[in-house]
Design brief:
single chain, 50% helix, mainly alpha
Length: 78
């Protein structure tokens, strides 16, 4: 998952960074830094983010990495 995909999936769910961090059991700092591209996500962080999105019915990796805005609806499995 790229930072763009993460942010697009989060917006699709209308979640704040804090809500995603809570759902993924990570700090909001880690999530925010990943989304802004300041720090790469570790395998554990990315797995937590994927799980949080999947539990909410969104496949973040189905959102094109270069343009998360146009395909957000396609990533929603509900």
């Amino acid at each position: 998952m790229t930072p763009t995909q993460c942010k697009a999936a989060r917006r699709r769910l209308a979640w704040s960074i804090e809500k995603l961090a809570h759902r993924a059991m990570r700090s909001h700092t880690v999530v925010g830094e990943f989304e802004r591209g300041k720090k790469p996500g570790s395998a554990a962080v990315l797995a937590s983010l994927r799980r949080a999105f999947a539990e909410a019915g969104v496949d973040a990796e189905a959102i094109p990495a270069d343009d998360g805005n146009d395909a957000e609806d396609a990533a929603c499995s509900r």
